[in-house]
Design a protein that fits this description.
By secondary structure, the protein is of the alpha/beta class. It has eleven helices and 30 strands. The longest helix is centred in the first third of the chain and has 16 residues.
Length: 469
């Protein structure tokens, strides 16, 4: 059985301000108007023979985003493994391999980052079939992207002897080169970009770890066995997993194994690692501009302009990136766009929320969005998905007024329970135990007006919660 393994632990800081730590790029519709990168990764696998349900490895903060987007894609089986701390790709894949072998002893893993763009799905399918055949012979297979330009931002793979069709053994891996070296690689025809995508039998991967990284394997086995099921998730204990060495699958296995193989892949691949990379994936106008949202341009060329919440007008600029969100604007030359990570680090150091959250915050029950903020009051727009409910909670420092503008609300306040329809409202006094639920079939939308001496999100005392928070 071919089991997709989606590695989904990244935060995508180079795509700030759209990608944020608690709502990163893989869960956003960056290259598509509707589907997120995560959902596209799963969708493009449809039609592969013998395909099983996916295993997703992610961090705790993103667990409800993963669960929701899996459900939206019709995936109700598989596993969601919660990494308590980042330990790079080799341990993450080890956890997934251990889980896959519990499902079936003949598990073949198709390991994919959850944030790449691939345009030619048929080419991926053909390469995956070739890779799966090699994996059946015991090879540890990676996909090498056929380069179309001298790229200094990727590692490279040199092809060795031909194994079957166009698949080859791996001669060696090369680090990110300078421009002259990358040009020589391209001209030689012997090198491919390292994609970070792999196919191998789960048991073979664990055998390689046992030989080359036994401490890592033992730590992963202990952590998995000590894990616990929580709703849709498998929680890996931090105290055990923290002892696991941190290493990439390239260094831990691929560069050490004697059975490394590479399948060339020419499929319109892009790792969407920066705003210029996303510009490359878009449909450009006659001047080379790619735009999203409400954008007006004059005298602009070869630029990427994205407006999330209002009109963005750009005049007389070339080779720039302009990104507008409700609470931040980024303006950069394309050449310097990689440096946005330094802005994110500065925001974190200053304790500013723009590095972590959008004004619209996603929760397992829906979303909330801050509309107006002041010292002693705040106005929010809250959307509760059908059949969902907030925790039973109270606040020490604020009261709340709820006005229903769409749908039906079931409100618990103290010992009272009432049902509110559109244009009806209620008041939640300070210190009252309360809950908001949506018993209807359409999203519930309310306007919440908070008033009090402290309005922080940490002024919540939870008594009962459907999501284990």
């Amino acid at each position: 059985m071919l089991i997709p393994i989606l590695l989904s632990g990244g935060v995508g800081s180079r795509l700030w301000p759209v990608s944020r730590e608690l709502y990163p790029k893989q869960f956003l519709p960056l290259a598509d108007d509707k589907r997120t990168l995560f959902q596209q990764t799963l969708e493009r696998l449809q039609g592969l023979p013998g395909l099983g349900e996916p295993i997703v490895v992610c961090n705790n903060e993103h667990r409800f985003l993963v669960a929701q987007q899996l459900r939206e894609g019709g995936h109700t089986g598989g596993s969601i493994l919660l990494e308590p701390i980042g330990r790079n790709t080799a341990p993450a894949i080890a956890l997934a391999a251990i889980d896959a072998l519990k499902q079936t002893e003949d598990a073949v893993l198709l390991v994919l980052p959850a944030d790449h763009v691939i345009r030619d799905w048929a080419a991926l399918h053909r390469a995956a079939v070739t890779a799966q055949a090699l994996a059946g012979e015991g090879y540890i297979v990676t996909f090498g992207i056929v380069p179309n330009q001298p790229e200094t931002g990727y590692g490279y793979i040199r092809k060795g002897a031909v194994l079957r069709d166009d698949a080859c053994s791996v001669s060696h891996f090369a680090e990110k080169p300078d421009l002259s070296t990358a040009t020589a690689y391209l001209e030689s025809g012997e090198y491919l970009w390292n994609s970070g995508m792999f196919v191998f039998r789960a048991d073979r991967y664990l055998e390689e770890l046992a030989e080359h990284a036994p401490q890592m394997l033992e730590a992963c086995r202990q952590a998995y066995e000590a894990g616990s099921e929580d709703l849709d998730f498998i929680r890996i204990p931090k105290d055990i997993f923290a002892a696991c060495p941190s290493d990439s699958v390239d260094y831990a296995v691929m560069e050490r194994t004697q059975r490394a193989a590479v399948v060339p892949l020419d499929c319109g691949w892009n790792d969407v690692g920066s705003w210029p990379a996303l510009w490359q994936t878009g449909s450009a106008d006659a001047e080379g501009n790619v735009t999203r949202g409400d954008v007006m341009l004059r005298g602009v060329g070869n630029s990427y302009v994205r407006a999330e919440s209002r009109l963005a007008a750009v005049i007389g600029l070339q080779d720039v990136v302009v990104i507008e969100t409700p609470d931040a604007v980024l303006v950069s030359s394309k050449d310097a766009a990689q440096d946005v990570k330094h802005i994110v680090n500065a925001l974190k150091k200053a304790g500013r929320g723009e590095a972590l959250l959008h004004t619209r915050v996603y929760r397992p029950w829906g979303t909330y969005e801050s509309l107006v903020e002041s010292d002693r009051f705040q106005v929010k727009r809250i959307v509760v998905n059908p059949g969902q409910q907030l925790s039973l909670q109270m606040h020490h420092h604020r009261a709340e007024h709820w006005i229903v503008v769409k749908g039906t609300a079931r409100v618990t306040c103290g010992d009272n329970e009432l049902t509110l329809h559109e244009d009806q409202s209620t008041y939640i006094p300070i210190g009252s135990k309360h809950r908001l639920a949506n018993p209807g079939k359409i999203p519930l939308e309310i306007i919440e007006v908070q008033s009090g001496s402290y309005l922080g999100e940490d002024d919540i005392v939870r008594f009962q919660d459907s999501y284990g928070r």
